[in-house]
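fwd from M.: "can u put these together and see what the complex looks like"

so here's what she sent:
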Amino acid sequence: GQNIDQPTEMTATEGAIVQINCTYQTSGFNGLFWYQQHAGEAPTFLSYNVLDGLEEKGRFSSFLSRSKGYSYLLLKELQMKDSASYLCAVREGQAGTALIFGKGTTLSVSS
Amino acid sequence: DTGVSQNPRHKITKRGQNVTFRCDPISEHNRLYWYRQTLGQGPEFLTYFQNEAQLEKSRLLSDRFSAERPKGSFSTLEIQRTEQGDSAMYLCASSGYRDKGIGNTIYFGEGSWLTVV
């Protein structure tokens, strides 16, 4: 079966660093994706990991450990506009097949 | 290129009526996906097309749901005899072989909100 777990909610203050964890148990693995979704809007792509290690992209970084079935999204220098839901998604099959999403982590950034 | 386009953006319908949503993917993207999302949940996969072929359907896709992509470009998702439980945001997404460098990333449209009353 498929199981992707993330914390439901997190809070942080402006300027801080926050780490959002994701664990997964899937029948196959061909990449892990992080998306950001503001309330009432569509998810937008943030990052992609298929090999173990850290991928850095500006204020956002994503880490993957395939042996542990674990990923995290690291957000630095938090801004109010980072308040959103962060979705972890796994591709089980070959390239191009659908992504399976977790329920998302709602991050609230306060001043 | 204006991204993935969906319409209508909002639809209110009475229980038992049929509704149809349209999705226009990013130009030249050969893969198209439909997802459904309710409040507080992540997107749930419904179905997936490669060109005009429907390659995968979720068990969530009951007999009342049908999706088509007749010419391998735009797609439609029809829900027959709508029920209140069908109220959700229906998201369309696309991906293309040119995005191999970033894992065939899926790009989402703005979604079509359905409210069944």
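replying to her w this: The two ends of chain B are 36 Å apart (CA to CA).
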